[in-house]
Amino acid sequence: MNFAPYSEPVWGSDVMVDVLRGLGLKYVALNPGSSFRGLHDSLVNYGGDEIAMIECPHEKIAMGVAHGYAKVTGEPMAVILHDLVGLLHGTMGVYYAYIDRTPVLVLGGSGPADHVRRRPNIDWIHSANVQGEAVRAYTKWDHEPRSLASVPAILARAHRIAREQPAGPVYVALDAGLQEDQVRDPVPLHDLDRLAALPSPLAPEPAALRDLAERLCAADRPVMVLGYPGRHPESFDTLTRLAEEVGIGAVETHWRLNFPNRHELNVTGSAALERADCVLFVDVKDMGKATQRLESATRRITSRLAAGTAILDLGFNDVGISSWSEDYAELVPTDLRVTADTAVALPLLLAECRRILGQEPEARREAWRDELRRLHRDTWAGWRAAADKQAGDSPVSTARLAAEVWEVIREHDWVLTAGTAAEWALRTWDFDRPHRHPGRQLGTATQIGISLGVALAHKGTGRLVVDLQPDGDLMFDVGALWVAARYELPMLVVMFNNRAYYNDWEHQERLARQRGTPLDRAAIGMAIDTPAPDFAAIARGFGWQAEGPVTDPDAVRAAVSRAADHVLATGRPALVDVVCQPK
Asked: What are φ and ψ of residue 152, in 5° steps?
């Protein structure tokens, strides 16, 4: 519904809203700012409620919401950042969207570029000569339209580039003067869908793909390491069939959910890589993390792979590589690289393997399949034994926390947002469908914002969205709780509350042991205690149903069950604060 006293675009910002509507954007996240007051008015009045506005208490949270939403849907949200200062507030969120290959359309108010239209002081100190330079090193593209007539093509290009694989954030600064100018000449929008249309995805070179399939099928003990193929939900099933039909072990990196965790050929956490004679990396940026051992205190790295192991790679390789961020990690010697979007290449690889294997008996790989099944069983048995050993501990062990939450949610259609409680959810729950998990968080101060976006994407589906929320992460962005209450997001937040920035604490303990310094002083500057934050009280203050702190492991399930019932019955968020052991 249009709330403006006119129905055709009168102001430059009205044209901008028409473009955003034409691009199919459903949401825009923002923290208010005067540099986009024109755009804000047009979104609210000229655009009505067609593009829903998600108000956030900080620009980084706004970026996190868009990041999480895009990880679920594959489609970008818009985020508006106020001038230079709002952009600087949001930079960490922009960077994390970039390294996580997540499409976000980042818009900024700027200027006015015309100096005679600037307000004294404030418009000057909030403006940059080329505003996009602040994020140019970690966006796929940036621009600043110089005329209203150029806005449709620039925004359409930005929207297209953000979605082209490998996906990522783009930034477009919208000059305050252009927003607030009256429209003198009509701006045509009839070709918007053609301007924003995606090109065909990157397909593999046929001979190289055949070579890859032949090498994979010729191996005696193949294993595949999975990075980002799960961004395309159909890959979940394709990878499962590839593993089953060819006899390949699957090792997850958890950047996306790529493979069912309880499948007998999922050998994540086992010694399968050490036994492999062929390793296929599937859409993996960092080949080292999954295949190297690290001695943290000395930073000594050794390979887990046996000498002579064949290394194959299927993915984007150097497409979109950054000269600034070294998120591509160490270069690993590779026998064959095939550059392609795995959304296209994996079905073709499966078909090629089927053609090859149709010419030989399946029994050749049966011994390897049996070994993979044994490795899977033994790994899971080891996790169960470790969990059982800690089951009665108080504060609550991390394994017990994950197990109790699982007993509550297992009968529902659930989604895990980001963090996995030190991977115990991955060792306990049944990730049987691609929508169960959009991928792990990216570090402290990323989880709650991403979780909001995941919950927004699933709002109205009836799914129970679960956030195993670390306390240190929430301390950065505690105002994010208001967003969930304000927009009635269906979030069950279970605090993984170890009252510490424990990852860093653990590093200090390692160095204390290495250097012979007092171990009991490693906690200085690391604890979130004395006073311990009352997260339940904080959440209630933002309008949540909340209880805790829960310290008795036998009380966790009942508390989580009450919270889950509230979320499912009302569609509104609930929090349970569980005091846990460090890991």
From this structure: -60, -45
Instruction: Please give the Cα distance from 94 to 253 (Å, whole number).
Output: 22
pLDDT over 90 (residue 166):
yes
pLDDT > 90? residue 355 = yes
Q: Can you say how many angstroms the Cα of residue 93 is from the centroid of all Cα atoms in its chain?
A: 11
For the chain, the 3-state helix, strand and coil shares in percent, each to the nearest 5, are 45, 15, 40
Q: Which sign does the torsion angle of CA 546, 547, 549, 553 carry? A: negative
Q: CA triplet 396, 400, 406: central angle to 5 degrees?
A: 130
- Given a cut of 70, whether residue 14 has pLDDT beyond it is yes
Q: How far is CA 204 from CA 212, 218, 242, 313, 355, in A?
A: 11, 20, 17, 12, 17
Average pLDDT, the chain: 94
What's the rounded Cα separation, in Å, for the pair 281 and 583? 29
Q: Is a pLDDT exceeding 70 seen at residue 583?
A: no
Query: Where on the phi/psi map is residue 13: left (φ > 0), alpha (ψ -120 to 50), or beta?
Result: alpha
Tokens 């919401």 identify what position? 65
Distance (Å, whole) CA 467 – CA 455: 9
pTM of the model: 0.95
Token pair of 151 as six digits: 């806005």
How many Cβ atoms from other residues are within 10 Å of residue 57's Cβ? 16
Residue with tokens 């019932």: 565
Which region, left, alpha or beta, applies to residue 24 given φ > 0 means left and ψ of -120 to 50 means alpha? left
| Of 392, 560, 581, the residue nearest 471 (C-alpha) | 581
Backbone angles phi, psi at 144, to 5 degrees: -140, 105
**Residues ≥6 apart with Cβ < 8 Å to 138:** 94, 95, 98, 99, 169, 322, 324, 325
Q: Where are the alpha helices (DSSP H) in 219-284?
A: 234-246, 272-275
Q: Which of 41, 166, 170, 151 is nearest to 105 (CA)?
A: 170
- Encode pLDDT of 483-502 as tens digits: 999 999 999 999 998 877 77
Give the separation between CA 476 and CA 562, rounded to whole angstroms.
27
pLDDT tens-digit profile of 529-560?
A: 889 999 999 999 999 999 999 999 999 999 99
pLDDT value, residue 509:
82
CA dist 229 and 257 (Å) reads 8
Among all chains, which residue has been given the structure tokens 């796929």?
140
Name the helix (H) or strand (E) containing 366: helix 366-390
pLDDT at 314 (0 to 100): 98
| Largest Cα span, the chain | 80
